[in-house]
Amino acid sequence: MAQAVIAQPAVARLRGSNARSRRIVDRIATAALWGASSLVVLLLLLFIGFEFYRGASSISWQFLTGSPTAGTAGGGIGPLIFNSFYVLILTLAFTVPISVCAGMYLQEYSAGGRFKAIVQFSAESLATVPSIVMGLFGLLVFVSALHWHFTALGGALTLTLLNLPAMMRVTQEALAGVPGTYREASMACGATKWQTVLKVILPSAIGPLTTGVVLVSGRIFGETAALIYTAGASVSYGRSAYDVNPFHTAETLAVGLYQVHREALVPDVDRIANGSALVLLVMVLVFNVVARVVGRALTLRFTGKAR
Amino acid sequence: MIQSQPAAAPALADKMKIENLDIFYGTFQAMKRANLSVPDRHVMALIGPSGCGKSTFLRALNRMHDLTPGARVEGKVTLDGVDIYAPSIDPVTVRHRIGMVFQRPNPFPKSIFENVVYGAKIHGEKNPKRLAEIAEKSLRAAALWDEVKDRLSRSALDLSGGQQQRLCIARVLAVEPEVILMDEPASALDPIATSKIEDLIGELKRDYTVIIVTHSMQQAARISDFTSFFLLGELIEVGTTSDIFTRPRDKRTEDYITGRYG
After folding, report:
1. I need a surface site. Which of A73, A90, B84, B216 has the fewest CB within 10 A?
2. Hey, CA dihedral for B151, B154, B159, B165, is it positive or negative?
């Protein structure tokens, strides 16, 4: 009886006069947030669908492996795909060692202080340089000043400048994800800093690190503006179709896509452009998927989980 | 502050001696003028309420503060009479001789075997047969061998919390230190795992000097030969464990052990 007396006002308070309207607002907010998230997925699916619709008919073995033609229809993009991978590998060969070492220094060695601040500031500034500006810088340095002309190497070095900050960030984040207790445990066993980094920290971070590297690779693969004036926009400029000389011109798939609409002298421009766009898109998507799969596999492998 | 030496202490050889130890985090002084002698092959417990500086004190004993930006240690800490903070001393060598077990079990994300032999490998042991011997010896000493001998290649992360902590102790033993520092090693464990760790500490003192931080007075009473009481960044009193718990000299020690604060 006494309880009922107490409960009565409590229930009234719980029901509250505005309870109904608050519940409706809550539902609307949830729906709006869900809608915005779904929109992202929908846009991606629409975009992929559109590219497939436009480009699927262009895809054939001949298109994927054949060489571009001048003046006649039926050209392929084989050398362009090859160049994209070639320039990517060259770029990674420079970017990964430098940025992993720099990121490692910042995360594991520097105890804050001025030098760390300077490096961070430099990286952030470098990250804000538009890729076309970086491309023009490459043009001045590698193409003109060094007299290399348009080269795969010049393109790769320009891309290195462009992607160092992102790769450094990736390294820092991967290392930051390693629990501090691992460091303490290793040091308490009498390990040096370098031994700790090499035997404990890096193996623990290898999954996220690889994921990051592959994701950045996807961006390098699709980069265009920085390459037009550095690696060049031609595959027939003094070189054979599949050429590994880093001092030769190397038009990548992304640059080719830009170029074919601008000045190609072939009657089937649309077919080549749509096909190239689809191939580029699929490649970049593959990078994203591979990044996650390989990252997870490496984490399992190196942390000994789920053996 | 009372610097009472236990009656039995003079007869024992000091393994470690701490003189006028000050520890700062930036401008904050976390430990003031601490003095302590730790007898060889005995268990020394460090007790006191949370935030009293006992863990801070412990971490100064194998130079773990070197890894903390802003931390500064002043005073003298000697191991067998040699100052471990002397400029000529390499902190890596110090940690080789003075191992540490942490509050939360922190095995590496590697196999059980790789965890145990980590220190040995770090110090240059490559012979697989020798490494296998070290692994078995250390795991036996840590009372873990029988539970894991059939699955040494499994991930250490698959072990229970208590097993992980004994693995961490085995990992320290494999380095063959002389002193083992333990920072509340059982605080994250259930009672059964805790009692296994306590039994193990009783075994370890035959070969090692153990300095253990504990927030549990019962634990200190069960496992230690000597106890030191810390309060507000000061080492208040040191004595044999039975003296500290039955006839403390300082009023503050008495208040703490009778449960008046903490």
Report:
1. A73
2. positive
